[in-house]
Amino acid sequence: MRIRNKQYSRVVLLAGASAIVALTLWSSGHIARTLRNEEQRKVELWSEAIVQRAQLVRYTEDLFADLRTEERDKADLIGEAYRIIQEADPGAPVDLTFITRFIQANRTIPVLVYKDGVLQADINVPPSLRSPDQLDSLRNAMEARGSVINFEEGLTLFYDQSNRFRDLRTVMDDIIHSFISETVLNSASIPVLLADSTLKRIVRADRFNARDLADTTALIARLSAVNPPIALDLPGAGRQWILYDESLVLKQLRFFPVVQLLIIGGFLLLAYSTFSAFRRSEQNRVWVGMAKETAHQLGTPLSALLAWVEVLRSEGVDEAVLTELGKDLDRLRTVTDRFSKIGSDPELTSADLSAFVAETMAYLQRRMPKAVSFEVALEEGARASFNPALFGWVLENLTKNAVDAMEGAGSLRVRLAGVGGQVVLDVEDTGKGMSRWVQRQVFDPGFSTKARGWGLGLSLVKRIVTEYHGGQIVILRSEEGLGTTFRVTLPLVSEDMG
Fold first, then answer.
1. Distance of alpha carbon 108 from alpha carbon 168, whole angstroms
2. List of residues 6+ apart from 313 with CB closer than 8 A
3. Do 442 and 434 contact (CB within 8 A), yes or no?
4. Would you kindly state where each structural domain of the chain is located, as residue ranges?
5. Phi, psi at residue 306, to the nearest 5°?
6. Residue in 156, 139, 161 with CA at minimum distance from that of residue 76
7. Where are the beta strands (DSSP E) in 84-126?
8. Per the confidence metrics, is the pTM higher than 0.70?
9. pLDDT tens profile 3-61
10. CA distance 12 to 409
11. Which fold is adopted by the domain 346-491?
């Protein structure tokens, strides 16, 4: 019943922990999905606004193109007017009043008048361009475009596109540049970049670190997989693509459940370790107190029995009977010594472990059922550091457990040999064996498959071997219906060291 309750408690705790983990993951995942949907809606609205602004930019560009055409036509008309004046026959009755007034009405088209290579007048030239070098550069630019009229008597006229035309072009360039900047910067707080039509080159990017931007191809491929690119047609730049990533908050939120579970797990592990340490300490105090009290309680009747043996000897009782009775009293004295050593550092003696095992097994064999056959194979001279009283307890527990597993009939094999710097002791029985579930718990304090067992025998055996002797004890083999083999290993001690 104790084992069932323990297993039931473990199942309940595991189910509760699983439910907490599942609820945490689902809650965080739901929040992440909600946030992602909100971001996507914001980006969709933002992208629609960007597309509409791009259409406005295109409309503005078309409008400016018409104005540029008009200004260019006006510049051509000014030039044509100067040509008409230049080619007019002074004797012919031609009215040049309108043409002259048209020229005088010019307020936007820059005109440079030279006579024999010397500047005579500059019309509509900004003050910032009136230095000699700048005027020469402006004249060369006009001449390169073919905007030149040569008059008689060495008079030459240069004209250019209107100032308004240049201002419109500057304004349009600023609008496009500002639009690109706002497209990238005002991006709903998410990383955004603008790529060219081939999706190979980054035109502008924001909220990306240098490591991401180092590999352009990988970055564009990753963003294209996260969200579909948004097409954007800009005047003079052709088709470009807007790519965007998830926000930093959303990325962090995806890892939040893992971090949260790690923190909770670490706290629970620390709490469990602390609780286990206190529990083991309390168990140790209980065991030590119980053991010492047992040794104290056994001391009085043991002394009385020793006195009664002497009384029997004086009355002429058969010496053989008294000898066997003395052996049992020595054994009882050894048991008392074992209990008295619990909780204190035992004294280890470097001695021949083979001889000790042979003597102990001979004693146990005479007190076990005759239907159990003993087979003891010991390598002579295998030395180890051990406490005879405590290690004898190990052998006695393993032997009694094996006999119980065989239900009083079977074969018990004990083998001891030195292997690779260790003394290896195998105790093998032909009993009912153990399932894997039992094997995992057989050394736990309080675990027992017997109806009246306390579950302390193998737990004490493991403690004696590992804590007091610095060795190991494992289940080497166990199969249900075929038996079990326990293996105990101790450090081998050479005779010189002993």
1. 12
2. 319, 322
3. yes
4. 346-491
5. -60, -40
6. 161
7. 111-115, 118-123
8. no
9. 455 566 667 777 777 787 778 777 777 777 777 777 777 766 666 766 666 676 677 77
10. 41
11. Heat Shock Protein 90 (3.30.565)
